[in-house]
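Per your request, structure below.
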């Protein structure tokens, strides 16, 4: 797998490169955001530092998302909750806190790329309709009353998962497992942010019901 590492810190970049290589992948390291925007093609996953010398990593992320759905993992300093939330809302698939644990890094890379591959290989043409909400599993779009919802890839998957199980509860573990490949490796915080983003865009209060201590549910006959 070709891994693009966008990181200006030489020591951090060296550690990431070595880790990615040790797992049999092919890393390419860039230091500048502008260079990442020019050469993101031909990579199966992007590791993106948020503190870059020439431009804000979040800006790089937003620009990448306009042109590619390649899995992007953001790398952030400890305790930078605001950047994590902004990053996930801007379309990052997941995040890693520095100093990055190498085992965790590799597991996250596997999880997001497996998820992306599965999404691309989806052979269904199904459209799920729940009230005024229409979810096209083939085109990976959702619309409400005919208007397309500007969901991120992860928000769409979350909605599609809940919709496929409409009427029954989907546990947090099932969601983490389905979206990130492993309930124990996935970051629970990522799920909360994506869920908040999805709810804000749906503008349907009460549509996604919290089932206390268990998970989430949407009603089959929801209007
Ligand atoms: Ca940096």
């Amino acid at each position: 797998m070709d891994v693009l590492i966008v990181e200006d810190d030489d020591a951090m970049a060296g550690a990431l490169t070595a880790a990615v290589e040790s797992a049999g992948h092919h890393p390419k390291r860039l230091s500048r955001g502008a260079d990442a925007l020019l050469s993101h093609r031909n990579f199966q996953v992007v590791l993106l530092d948020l503190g870059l010398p020439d431009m804000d990593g979040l800006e790089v992320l937003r620009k990448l998302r306009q042109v590619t759905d390649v899995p992007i993992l953001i790398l952030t300093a400890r305790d930078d909750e605001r950047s994590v939330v902004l990053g996930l809302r801007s379309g990052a698939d997941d995040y890693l806190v520095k100093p990055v644990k190498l085992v965790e890094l590799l597991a996250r890379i596997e999880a997001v790329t497996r998820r992306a591959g599965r999404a691309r290989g989806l052979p269904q043409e199904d459209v799920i309709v729940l009230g005024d909400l229409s979810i096209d599993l083939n085109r990976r779009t959702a619309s409400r009353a005919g208007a397309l919802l500007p969901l991120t890839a992860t928000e769409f998957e979350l909605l599609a998962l809940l919709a496929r199980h409409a009427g029954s509860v989907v546990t947090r573990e099932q969601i983490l497992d389905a979206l990130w490949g492993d309930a124990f490796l996935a970051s629970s915080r990522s799920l909360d942010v994506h869920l908040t983003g999805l709810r804000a865009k749906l503008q349907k209060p009460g549509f996604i019901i919290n089932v206390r201590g268990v998970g989430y549910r949407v009603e089959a006959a929801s209007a």
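The two ends are 44 Å apart (CA to CA).

Regards,
D.
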